[in-house]
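Hi D.,

Good news: the full-assembly prediction came through. Inputs first.
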Amino acid sequence: MKKVSHMIEVNHISKDFVAPKKYPGLRGAVKGLFSAEKVIKTAVDDISFSIDTGEIVGYIGSNGAGKSTTIKMMTGILVPTKGTCTVAGINPSRSRKENAQNIGVVFGQRTQLWWDLPLSESFTILKEIYNVSDTAYAEQMEFLNRVLALQDFFDRPVRTLSLGQRMRADLGAALLHNPKVLYLDEPTIGLDLVVKDNIRKAIKEINEKYQTTVILTTHDIGDIEELCSRIMIIDEGRKIYDGSLCELKDTYGTKRKVSMEVKQPEKIKGLCLHELLGVQETECSMALNLENSTLSVTFDKHKLQVPQLLSAVMAVAEVKDIQIQETELAEIVKEIYNHGVGGAA
Ligand SMILES: Nc1ncnc2c1ncn2[C@@H]1O[C@H](COP(=O)(O)OP(=O)(O)O)[C@@H](O)[C@H]1O
Ligand SMILES: [Mg+2]
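Then the structure:
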């Protein structure tokens, strides 16, 4: 086999979907049925990246951005319209069987398990499909039972499981043959905090124990903060960010919020802070809450320093308490979704 430099290499892949043209209204729907007119939707548009063994990468973007389509190309379910993709040295769509041995997949929106069979039987079938030896099976089940507690519902039909149990079962099933790469497409969707936490812990432990490479799409920023050192952001099929979480926070988390409890809030009322400090209104905005005597100021940390702000406020009123907050990751991401990378800076 040729040398594998990266676990995953994606080179300029695109995916176009051809769909019948839609017309508005009921009459339009009927017209659409008979019309030969087609529209091309580019779901993934010239994306490249490489991922090393053992990385956990968060793949994020708003709904319809192209995340699942990218994952489907990496798993071999879809063939790219353009570009190439290699996973563990294999072209996934050309060598689907060989590729299947190397990967595990969980789609949070739908189970891969046999709905009416007891979970244990799904596992027995998967053991056969993936050619897992008895020894390897016993060892892996011991590990999966420990991290996902599958034994609690192993004999129950999948359709009777709660969402959280089903997700643990799906994750376990994806890991039975100990794949090199694990794709998780919204694995924590709809789960309560306790189950989310269990799933995150399990992913972390699997990654540490086996150096499993993990690609995770999620809308849950908590998943990202807990698990991913690297994130890629995709927007309308294009990759708009690829880097560390720290870098993202440093570069785009330029806003800071300071809350001050003041003794005489009425003295603050007419204050025009941005003028006092010589900055634009957008670079420093204030909100005064008279009920709890708190002044909150949101400002650009490259334009203003906390001491400057404090002395301006303290010149008019006494400050009893102060709290400084960095921008939350969720806000940075929301801003990037809304305005692109340029807008968030
Ligand atoms: N099988 C398909 N046929 C036509 N369009 C599709 C198909 N699958 C996805 N799309 C379209 O491609 C875009 C990206 O979808 P998807 O990859 O599922 O986004 P995400 O997972 O980021 O929400 C969307 O506009 C979606 O409607
Ligand atoms: Mg999706």
